[in-house]
Amino acid sequence: MLTLITFAFFTALVGVITWFMTRGDDHGTSTGYFLAGRTLTGGFIAGSLLLTNLSTEQLVGLNGAAYTDGIAVMAWEVIAGLSLVFLALFFLPRYLRSGIATVPQFLEKRFDATTRAITSLIFILAYAGILLPIILYTGATGLAGILDLKSLTGIQSDTTLLWITVWFIGIVGSIYAIFGGLRTVAVSDTINGFGLLVGGILIAWFGLNAVNDQGVFQALSDMKTAHPEKFNTLGGPDSSVPFSTLFTGVLLLNLFYWTTNQQIIQRTFGAKSLKEGQKGVLIAGVFKVLAPIILVLPGIIAFHLYSADTEIAPDKAYGMLVSNVLPAPLAGFFAAVMVGAILSSFNSALNSTATLFSLGVFARFSGGNEKSTIAAGKICGAIIAILAMIVAPMLAGQESIFGYLQKMNGLYFIPILSVMIIGMFTKRVPAFAANIALLLGFGSIAVGYFFEPFAKFMERVEFHEFHFLGAVFAGLILFMALMRLIAPRKTPWVHEHSGDVDLTPWKLAWPFGIAIAAGVLALYIKFADTSVLEAKPKATAVPAESTSPQE
Predict the structure, then answer these.
(1) pLDDT-based confidence at 312, cuts 50/70/90?
(2) What percentage of the chain carries pLDDT values higher than 90?
(3) At what angle do helices 328-357 and 132-147 cross, to 10 degrees?
(4) Which end of the chain has fewer CB atoms surrounding its CB within 10 Å, N or C?
(5) What is the C-alpha separation between 279 and 50, in angstroms, rounded?
(6) Are 95 and 265 in contact (CB under 8 A)?
């Protein structure tokens, strides 16, 4: 009962604080509703970026991967730090110069309306049919385990409990996203982000004390002595993240997710200025480099504590650690923080979907005013939310929900990223080349994933899935470069300044970015053991689920 009371208290507290801080916000204009009135400062941007990314998929999935593969899986976090440096220094100045609210809007300015239509449709379908239901499903199953909802509610049917929990998360998240707008999402994200940071550090702290109560450093030393293979940053051939893939699929998936994914970067479009936007993005980059403390280390702690005596699936490791080491009075607090993380991912994706529909579809074809555009966004958000809440429980029984999500993300991550990079850094590539690349990239990856003869061929020649994504990306870049030579634009594209945002950069942006890159390199060198790169693949008793940047 104490757990349930503290959970309800902290969940309600976040809602009250968020309402108090945003009660006077402008929700009557497109800029106010979809871009927070372009008033977001560095702290809110950093907090919202981090918590939109963090959810049960990462806390459970990435720690589960660490249980099997050790710190090599930190690649998903620390490479994200590098991607955020690219966002701050190269992508964000160009986005803010354009005064855009969506990624497809930028592509329309650079190419044409067809490019915007294709990318808007891809984003809307991906968020509505893939991302939102998976967030609800994994969030509901994770929350049920952490709170032991069967005991608390007396509901013994897994199916009934799943439906109730999914609709609870979906309804609360919809209230934030549909009625609050982007600033409400960003403020609640920041508050929950602080709680998640505190809670995650506490789990690592209590876990290390369970290893050795003589101190954190002694506990780390004990684990490294007992399991040196878990402290190698270079993943071998049998790892879920082989070292060579850091330069192909892992890098590209991270780069898209943190520089081009509407769900994530929309809050940077609402920056008060380029200076504040760069501050927020680079602060988030620092935390991503430090994130393995809460997203990887607990998995290794769980392996040290439980692997010798207990057979558990890797994805159960984090939950077992939390239930065993966290003091009872803090359980409700941590559950509330977890709900905040789940809601953050859900309401951010929902807000982005409504933004894409309202500004990319409704406003373009209806000719309506701002009031009707916002109303259309709210209606669209409500419909998408209801559909997601209906679909989410149907995902129960999937053999690999993370593997499914990873495949689906690859389908659209790679084509859109290739077109965005060509669009930003060239001036004469024609629009038809970008439109063909979007469709060609999607089709090529679909064939590679789902056409059985081709999939078996890649498996036979040991061509890793991430390398395949890298090859498709390179092919699309070459295709568009060739089209520039064969049929270039008649006039070079001129990137005009909309005048909506002050583009004075943060004077510490480059030093900050270089420091983050140096930190990532130092971390890899410190814990690198190159001998593992020559090791032959070996079978594992319980394979870890794959994880991806958005998890």
Answers:
(1) confident
(2) 39
(3) 170
(4) N
(5) 14
(6) yes
CA-CA distance, 55 to 525, in Å (whole number)? 29
Q: How many whole angstroms separate alpha carbon 108 and alpha carbon 493?
A: 12
Which residue(s) pair with 502 in the sheet?
273
| pLDDT, greater one: 402 or 493 | 493
Q: How far is CA 544 from CA 65, 238, 240, in A?
A: 5, 11, 8
Q: Could you give the CA distance from residue 198 to residue 184 in angstroms, rounded to a whole number?
A: 22
pLDDT digits 0-9 by tens, 58-116: 777 788 889 989 999 999 999 999 999 999 999 999 999 998 888 999 999 999 989 99
**In whole angstroms, what is the distance from residue 83 CA to residue 418 CA?**
15
Angle at 64 between CA 59 and CA 69, to 5 degrees: 125
Is the separation of the CB atoms in 300 and 229 below 8 Å? no
Position 536 confidence tier, pLDDT thresholds 50, 70, 90: low
- Which residue in 79, 43, 90, 81 sits closest to 510, CA to CA? 90
Token representation of residue 431:
């629009």
pLDDT above 60: residue 6 = yes
Asked whether the predicted pLDDT for residue 209 surpasses 80, the reply is yes
Q: Which residues contact 402 (CB under 8 A, 6 or more apart)?
A: 57, 61, 545, 546, 547, 548, 551
Q: Which domains does the chain have, with CATH numbers?
A: 2-396 (1.20.1730.10)
Cβ pair 56, 341 in contact under 8 A: yes
